[in-house]
Amino acid sequence: MLIPVILSGGSGTRLWPVSREAFPKPFMKLGGERSLLQRTLERSLPLADGHLAAIVTNSEYFFKTREEIDSLPAANGHRIMQLLEPVGRNTAPAIAMAALWAQSIDPDATLLVLPADHLIPDEQAFQASARQAAELARQGAIVLFGIRPTTPETGFGYIETGDALPGAAFTVRRFVEKPDAARAVQFLAAGNFVWNSGMFCFGAKTILDAMQAHAPEVLAAARAAWEASRAAASDQKLPIAADAFAACPNISIDYAVMEKAAGVVVLPSRFNWSDIGSWKAVSEQLVPDADGNTTLGETMLVGSKNTHIQSEDRLVAAVGLENLLVIDTPDALLVASKDASQQVREIVGRLKSKGHEAARLHRTVARPWGTYTVLQEGPRFKIKRIEVKPKQALSLQMHHHRSEHWIVVSGTAKVSCDDRTYLVAANESTYIPIGSKHRLENPGVVDLVMIEVQCGDYLGEDDIVRFEDVYGRPAG
Q: What is the pTM of this model?
C-alpha cells in the first residue's frame, strides 16, 4: 500500500505578513482557489492505492486542516488521518510517528513523504516520478527526489549524484549545504548536482530500521509517544501524547538518517518545482508584465520595474518603484527589496520578541466554529465582527475583565447567560456582564453574523475562562 504522508508544519516566517503562526504557509492560496495544502493533496491522493493518506501537523491546526480536506472534492472517498503534534520536533520524529502509524495499518506500507507547502504545477510529471520512486522503495531503497537545477540557486541544499542505477536513480555521493554564489555556479556547470527537494519515498519498515541503526534515540522516543497515543486514535485524528512527544530529539530526517544510511538513492526529476521559500519565489510563479512586474489583487503601477505587489482588500498604487516587494494585508504592510527577501524572517523574530500579535494572528482569525475579525481597538474597547457557522457553538466561558455587547446583523443567535437561555434575532442585541458564564450558538441553517463590542480594563484573548467546549479545547 502506498500512503502519502504530508508534513504540514512550520510557520513560513519568510512569507509574513500573509503567513502567520496561527495561519501558516500551507494554508496560503497564492492567488488561486486552493491552498498549498490542498494542491499537495490533489497531486498525491491519486497515488494512494489504498485510499489512505496522513497529514502530520500541529494540534492547533486540526480544525482548519479538516476544513481544507472537507472542502476539497479530490479528497472524497479517501480516509485522511491527522497525526497531531503537541509541539514541533522537526521531520525525523514526525516521519517516525507516521511510519509507526502506517505499519499498524499495513506492515508492508510504502510512504510517500511530501511537504505541504511546495508548488508543483505539472501534476502528471510529479506522479510519474512518484511511481518510479515507489517501485524503488518496494525494493528496499530510501528514495530522495532531486530537482534538476535551472539556476545557480543559493537558497537550496544540493545532492551530488554518483553512479547510475536501474530505474533512473543514482547513488548519493554527498549532501551539500546551501552554497555561496560561486559554488552554486560550479554545481550547475558540473551537471551532476540536484536540489534536495525534501520529498522522500521509502517503506515504513525500511525507514524504521534505518532509524534504529543511525538514530536509535529518535526511534525510541517516537515508539514511546506512539504507545502512549495509539489508544486515542479515531478515524480522523491521532492526538500525540504531549509529554512523550516533547521528549523526542529535535532533528531533521536528513541529519538523523539520510546522510548516514546505506541504500539512499536520489531520483532526479525534471518537473517545475518551488518550495515557495520567499516572496521573491512567489513572484517567480506569476506571469510578469512587459516591465517585469507581478501582481495579485487590485493594484496600479506607473513607471515601476521588476516589482511584486500583493493586496488583499484595497487598491495599492505604486509609482517609480524598482526591484521591490509590497505585500499588503488588513493589519500589516511589508515593503522590502527583492534581494533581501530572505530577511523577512527577522521582522517576525523582532515582533515575537516584543509580544506583538501580528507575528501570530491576522485581523481575521479562524476558529472551529467560524471566524472573528477585529474591526477597531482603542483604550478600554474593542469591536469585532463574529461569524458563526450553522449548528456551531462557542465554548461556555466567562471573562474577568470585560463585558460584551452583541448586536445580531443576520441569522439568529442562541444565547446562554448565567441561568437564562434566549434567542436574539437580526437587528436585536444583548448584553453580557463581566463575570457572567455565557455561550453563543447558531441554531440556524445560515451563518450567524454579529458585531461584538467589548469594554473593560483588559481585552486580550487570554481573558477567557472556558468551562465546556464541543471541540475538545482545554478548560481554563
A: 0.91
